[in-house]
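This protein record is not my work; I was only asked to verify it. The record follows directly below this note.
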Amino acid sequence: MIAAAAVLAVSSACPAGARDRQVPETAAEIKLSFAPIVKRVAPAVVNVYASRVVRQSPYFSDPFFQRFFGGPALGPTQRVQRSLGSGVIIDPSGMIVTNHHVIAQASEIKVALSDRREFDCDVVLDDERTDLAVLKIRDGEGDFPSLDFADSDDLEVGDLVLAIGDPFGVGQTVTSGIVSALARTKVGISDYQFFIQTDAAINPGNSGGALIDMNGGLVGINTAIFSRTGDSSGIGFAIPSNMVRVVAQSAESGDHVRMPWIGVRFQAVTPDIAEGLGLSRPRGALVVDVRKGSPGARAGLTTGDLVLSVDDVPVDDPSTFTYRLATKGIGASARIGVLRDGKQYAATLALEGAPETVPRDEIEIDGVSPLAGARVVNLSPAVAEELAYDGDTDGVIVEKVMAGSAAEEAGLAAGDVVIEVNGVPIDATRTLAAACAERLRVWDITIERNGRKIRTRFRG
């Protein structure tokens, strides 16, 4: 472990309680190489090739357009779209973690190993909320090179890291950098926002690749960059390995990703709220609603409480709180620090799966209404958790909108709650299906989106 020596050596100058790390100080230490680590971990990082058939303009079937846009189409309104990314083998059997956005809606997925072997893959689990997916190599001989998870909570700002992936399709590439920041929660990449920021160069094609620590452990999955040009500008983001581990464990158990549900809604603390609570700075997750009978209610939480910590780890905002619970998993418990009326106290919070209080009764709306092509389900805490819906858990929610459908043309989107159709309140999927079975010239539809009610009129 030559490369690790420069950063893991014990320093007598370190203050008491500090980690056993030091920066290179001599010319000999500066000449140390990352090569031993790369040689050991790089074979477990793969290139991911995904292809999907997408709709295209009917003009592309015209010979004139074919001449300029790459030959005949698959059909009058179809073409093949390809994407490139990276992945990490996390089990010798050929289990691979990558990003959801790399393989989203793919009809065919292949991976290429560093030794140029190629394999077809099946999707074991695809979770849009975390932007993670788990693949399995099909018809492989097993005993593939793999990486072990490291504890991403052990990372500190300034730690050296390596990013490995396939940027721009040029082939496997290794870049080095440091951990620039931890717990980035305002990135807008996934529903569970809590990212490692690094200045190791990450470019298009690196998505799904590995972020490696100096022990050769997987500390993150490279996911996105902040850039005005599309190229690396030294601000890259990786999903912490502790979150990746939760998704991988769900795939191994054959279950979808289930996050702990506590039945509590939070809001971020603004400077004005912090001043009103007597805080020196904005921090914590402020309770704005507690569902009766939920784990949060049983833990004694009430509106106006401020959650400041989870297992003695500080909570800066609601996203941090959600991440801490998610990485503990269902069935565990968490000790939370709460501020109420200027006094702090501790409570034990049971982490449970969200209940399905009513049958889903999934229906795809058909007929000639503006909602035709929408797949809808009855709301419950379980459905709300799966769809990352943060509102009342009663009514009917759109689970998916089919491509090219009337619902898509009408602007309907997954996560919309249908409130009313032509004056009929919608309380169940069967009620909505009956309301949409009419043949009308004018449709008056009200939905809720992001907490706002939107009323729209359509002509049939």
